[in-house]
Amino acid sequence: MCVKFVSPGTPGVPDRLIITATGRIIFAELKTETGRLAKIQRYTIEQMQKRGADVRVVKGLDEVKQLLAEIGGMQNDL
């Protein structure tokens, strides 16, 4: 399950919230292969990671496929 994540009033949160079949939760910020994080995104991701959250910055289709393979997703559907 991958849903768009929006947190009004909290800038810089990752784009997606992924909940795997086993209940694992991953926050993912999706970027193009050349995309860069804004300062607020870097700060927010660091704060989330300090608290133990699994936060990923995923750049481009190849990294999306890698993440799907890691979590057991259906990479052939892309």
Structure commentary:
The protein is of the alpha+beta class and 78 residues long. The chain has a single domain, classed as Trna Endonuclease, Chain: A, domain 1 (3-Layer(aba) Sandwich). Helices cover 31% and strands 24% of the residues. The chain has 2 helices and 4 strands; from the N terminus they run βββαβα. Strands 1-2-3-4 form a 4-stranded mixed sheet. A hairpin with a 5-residue loop joins strand 2 (16-19) and strand 3 (25-31). The longest helix is centred in the middle third of the chain and has 12 residues, at 39-50. The radius of gyration is 13 Å and the shape is globular. The model has no long low-confidence stretch (mean pLDDT 92).
Integer count of domains: 1
Rounded to an integer in angstroms, the radius of gyration calculated over CA atoms is 13 Å
CATH class: Alpha Beta
Please give the largest β-sheet: 4 strands, mixed
Q: Strands of the biggest beta sheet: in what spatial order?
A: 1-2-3-4
> What is the N-to-C order of secondary-structure elements (H for helix, E for strand)?
EEEHEH
Please, how many helices? 2
On the 0 to 100 scale, the average pLDDT is: 92
Distance between the termini: 15 Å
- CATH architecture descriptor: 3-Layer(aba) Sandwich
Class by SSE composition: alpha+beta
The number of distinct β-strands equals 4
CATH topology, anyone? Trna Endonuclease, Chain: A, domain 1
Q: How would the global form be characterised?
A: globular
The percent range for strand residues is 15-25%
Low-confidence stretches: none
Helix content: 25-40%
